[in-house]
Amino acid sequence: MVIISGIVCVYYNIIIAWTFYYVYSTMQSTLPWSRCDNSWNTPSCIGPGSILNETEQDKKNGTQSSVEFWERNVLNRSKGLEHFGSVRWPLFICLWLSWFAVFLCLCKGVKSSGKVVYVTATFPYLVLSILLIKCAMLPGAKEGLKWYLIPQWGKLASVKVWGDAALQIFYSVGMAWGSLITLASYNKFNNNVFRDAMIVPSVNCFTSVFAGLVIFSVLGFMSHTTGKPIEDVVTQGPGLIFIVYPEAVTKMPVSHFWAVMFFLMILTIGMDSQFGMFETMTSAFVDEYPKLLRKHKLAFTAFMCV
User: 3-class SS at 129?
Assistant: First the structure.
């Protein structure tokens, strides 16, 4: 549990670092991923400032401006694994900032994280509610919600669907990761654990379904604006957060505001997940060597962040 939490903490904070970079990017007068006249864009870029005519053939062979911003500016992706590339100093600073934020929130252990969670756990619901109302008004959102809510019963015969469902539940609830056990260990002795065991997965599943409403209303909107079927717009992993949604935001009125709100929400969700995993890691060491580490929890937390 400790090793897995430690490994995931490393890569999870990279996602938070990317989010910090996008929040910083929204402070420019024009959202940088919305245009094709930036230094990192290629002649095949599609978007405002593009040299292409945006014909059907151009759209087929070209690359969206949000994709080029992600791959050529944010990541500065090399040609392959055999080419290491160079250090992306802006991302290095964002990564340092993300670890510093984790340290500030956890420097006093569960006492400080418990207070921070009041903000980080409730803010995403506020933003999701606002985004749902806004996104549901976008053209094409209705079709996206239909695609999301109307079941395709034939898919239940696919083993892959059941595998993805199990992966989602195990990952999102954090079963066997140690974070639930670690945080529960700080409860009072007579705490109603059974009640908590009912609340945690219920809230988790509700949140997944609720967030899906927002995402698929945006995907419906993207399908409407690009002319592609919804299943072709759908993407998994970082692409959904850092390519599809930023591109959709550029087509909304007051796009800067919605971009800031969305990435602040991703930031708080990421920090929430990081708290549980990081506390699992530090608590395991402190509980194993209480005489050595319990009096120096602050210094040990800083050491683990470094």
Answer: helix
Alpha-carbon distance values, 35 to 60, 159, 245 (Å): 18, 41, 15
Give the model's pLDDT for residue 228. 78
Query: DSSP for 220-272?
Result: HHHHHHH---HHHH---THHIIIIIHHHHHHTSTTHHHHHHHHHHHHHHHHHH
* Residue carrying structure tokens 């699992």: 280
Give the structural domain span for 289.
Answer: 1-305
**Residue 59, C-beta contacts closer than 8 angstroms, at least 6 positions apart:** 46, 226
Query: What is the Cα–Cα distance from 278 to 55, expressed in whole angstroms?
Result: 49
Question: Looking at the 3D structure of the chain, how many domains does it have?
Answer: 1
- Binding residues, as ranges, are 172, 204, 272-273
- Distance (Å, rounded) from C-alpha 276 to C-alpha 264? 19
pLDDT of res. 236: 67
Binding site members for Na(+):
172, 204, 272-273
How many Å apart are CA 72 and CA 76, to the nearest integer?
A: 4
**Whether the predicted pLDDT of 51 surpasses 80:** no
